[in-house]
From TrEMBL, chains A, B:
Recorded GO CC terms: cytosol
Lineage, highest ranks first: Bacteria, Bacillati, Actinomycetota, Actinomycetes, Pseudonocardiales
Pfam families: Aminotran_4
NCBIfam families reported for this sequence: PRK07849.1-1 (NF005886), PRK07849.1-2 (NF005887)
SUPFAM superfamilies per the UniProt record, alphabetical: D-aminoacid aminotransferase-like PLP-dependent enzymes
Homology family: Belongs to the class-IV pyridoxal-phosphate-dependent aminotransferase family.
InterPro entries with a match to the protein in the record: Aminotrans_IV, Aminotransferase-like, BCAT-like_C, BCAT-like_N, Class-IV_PLP-Dep_Aminotrnsfr
GO molecular function, one term: 4-amino-4-deoxychorismate lyase activity
Species name: Amycolatopsis pithecellobii
Protein name, as recorded: Aminodeoxychorismate lyase
Amino acid sequence: MRVLAFLDGTLSDPDAPWIRVDDLGLMRGDGIFETVLVADGKPRELRPHLDRLARSASMLDLPEPDDEAWQRVTRQVIDNWTGDREFALKLVYTRGIESAPDAGPTAFAMGLTIDEKILRARRDGVAVVTLDRGIDPGLAERAPWLLLGAKSLSYGVNMAAGREAARRGAGDVIFTATDGSVLEGPTSNVIIARGHTLYTPPATIGILPGTTQAAVFRGAERLGWSTRIEPLSAADLRDNDGLFLASSVRKLTRVHTLDGEQLPDSSAVHAELAKAYEDVYS
Amino acid sequence: MRVLAFLDGTLSDPDAPWIRVDDLGLMRGDGIFETVLVADGKPRELRPHLDRLARSASMLDLPEPDDEAWQRVTRQVIDNWTGDREFALKLVYTRGIESAPDAGPTAFAMGLTIDEKILRARRDGVAVVTLDRGIDPGLAERAPWLLLGAKSLSYGVNMAAGREAARRGAGDVIFTATDGSVLEGPTSNVIIARGHTLYTPPATIGILPGTTQAAVFRGAERLGWSTRIEPLSAADLRDNDGLFLASSVRKLTRVHTLDGEQLPDSSAVHAELAKAYEDVYS
């Protein structure tokens, strides 16, 4: 199921064509997006998602997003959703039409059924391969024009990484930097549990600050866990009591296999943290 | 002026919406393109462009492009063009609609008036800044999932580099690798003249093989010049008799200023090579 609404409040047929061929979002991947999880009619982490949308817009020199309009259109899609109790809400914001710059950005929200593959990984965990992302951890600060850490529509490489994982018999990817440090998944953040402490790498190394990662950390802190945002090495991916990918639609997904090697069972840790995450919203 | 035709031969209004919001070209920058220069009704370097489209498709695991259909639609746009004697012809090929994978790729050709800024740079030359691209020259071979050297629709970084150049008072960019070696422009190849020899870096370092660069080399060879495809260092950008950017719409554009420093006048060398390039088509 899909529900589409443009930012001006126009509810539209998602099966009809709405975008001109010279929209810069299409022609140049020049735009940004967010994916929000909606559960039981409530958008999760909407404030952090809208903050990150504004941050991405600033990094791409796009006009500042109209926060209230995005809140309204989010509500509108939710109110028109009649599918599963959980769904993915995409917010898309492009630089607009190349031949009509005065028309301003193209902006819409779309509700989507969550992919079966994602739901299966939530339940059963996922096999992951590490792939070299070819960047060093200092690059994001040194070269802001590379848009590292912006949630850009130019996700071709993220999609290619997923295909490479499939070729290697895995379902997802963890990118590593040239110095071996852990970055992120193509559409997720990496979380490691060790004892009663959670770890995730800092956004300053050129990754997206995770909305779901932050929610999982909040949930764990309520249980008395410690949380640390600090650089992780490739060795940390093995030396832990649980390795997870966090994203809006994945929630907290357990990694059961890394580069073909089965990891120790982290189901119990996963169950505890998954409950802690859900309890944030109850 | 714009002329739009889809790959199936449907001539279409370029001001109408044709693309669904869940086209993966829009949602993920997941697709490829080419820009062909058409002059006096003839597409320049169409064979190399279509070969490169097929190469990009292979790198992205897209279905092999229908070569004859692309040739037909190219002819169709040209036959319907009534604007300037030179125009840009874009070929765009996306992974298609996410919710309807069986529908296959989205594919169209569009004729476009060449931007005034590009025409001015052709005549007067351009100021360029060097920007760190953050990759090392071995990365493309080591990590094919990064799609280095594919002409992908995920051009967000290339567009951001152009904005960074504008902030620094320049009109274009030359990307350098982490070891200081010369890569390419965001939408062009780098050519250096030294005596009667032309130099350009090899595509194996993760850049696009240039169709116009190759044509300039052919033209220069006819005049008895030597040509070399070999790695260039940042120092080579200054130690030469002419520094140029080559692309379909730019043709051979002279760089007159590099990182704020005016370069020695290379107008005479430029004029000779620009003529050599045009003579390829006469």
